[in-house]
Amino acid sequence: MTDLENLAELASQAAWLKALHDAIGTRLAETKADVQVALDKNRSIKQVAATLPDGTEVAKISLTDPKPEAVIVDPAAFLAWVRENAESEIVRRVEVITEVRPAYRATLLAQMTAAGRPEVCDTETGVVETVPGVEVRPTRARGHSVRFGKGGKEAIAAAWQSGQLLGVALPQLTAGTDETPAGPCPPCQDPNGPWDANGRCEECPHQ
After folding, report:
1. Are 73 and 134 in contact (CB under 8 A)?
2. How far apart are CA 166 and CA 160, in angstroms?
3. Which of 177, 142, 162 is nearest to 53 (CA)?
4. Which residues, 6+ apart, have CB-to-CB distance to 148 below 8 Å?
5. Secondary structure percentages of the chain, helix, strand, coil, to 5
6. Cβ(188)–Cβ(167) under 8 Å?
7. At what angle do helices 102-115 and 75-85 cross, to 10 degrees?
8. H/E element holding 104?
9. Rounded CA gap, 72 and 174, in Å?
10. Strand partners, 23
11. What is the pLDDT of residues 44-92, one digit of tens each?
12. In what order do the strands lie in the sheet with 57-64?
């Protein structure tokens, strides 16, 4: 193969893979959104098994539900409270900017996150005070993760190669009309054939 032929072959592969990558990426985003909607509707379900069409389990879909955290919603009110209660924790980077020392801010927010309320307790007096300008609320949206089981990815690859997943993962590339299905189709699944030299049924409408 000449350098020019090699370049043409690589360019062709790059185009094929780019088209597949774009299609799969779009389908993945849509499916993940659908999964999240279903999980949000069934909040008692924390984990779902993912299987191949033949029933082989390949992964677990697990809900990720971030816990509420303390966040500053009114910086001015928070700054005023710290200035009144812990003046030494106020820093002035320049003459016109006054802010709470980052380490102290992190400490306060961690205490309020642990308490589950925008309150802090004075360790010396035991007095509990509500800190203005802070709310304890979820900082991220609910989501989910996919964890493949042992051999899960290999099983999915084998299912793809056998044609089990073409209509599932890339329906926009395999869907067609009732009269003329779009191609190419997966190899014929009938062990008795009849198969042609390409492993497809002799009467396959995609030929």
Report:
1. yes
2. 7
3. 162
4. 58, 59
5. 40, 20, 40
6. no
7. 100
8. helix 102-115
9. 50
10. none
11. 888 999 998 888 898 999 888 778 889 898 989 999 999 999 988 988 7
12. 47-51, 57-64, 143-148
Residue 49: phi and psi, rounded to 5, are: -80, 140
The token pair that represents 9 in the structure block: 């072959």
3-class secondary structure, 138:
coil
Spatial distance between the Cα atoms of 68 and 95, rounded to a whole number of angstroms: 35
- The identity of residue 85, as a single letter, is N
Cβ burial 64-80 (10 Å sphere, 16+ → b, else e): eeeeebbbbeeeeebbe
DSSP 8-state code for residue 150: T
- Residue given tokens 């307790």 in the structure block: 121
Q: What is the pLDDT of residues 95-127, one digit of tens each?
A: 667 788 888 989 999 999 988 889 998 888 888
Strands 57-64 and 47-51: antiparallel
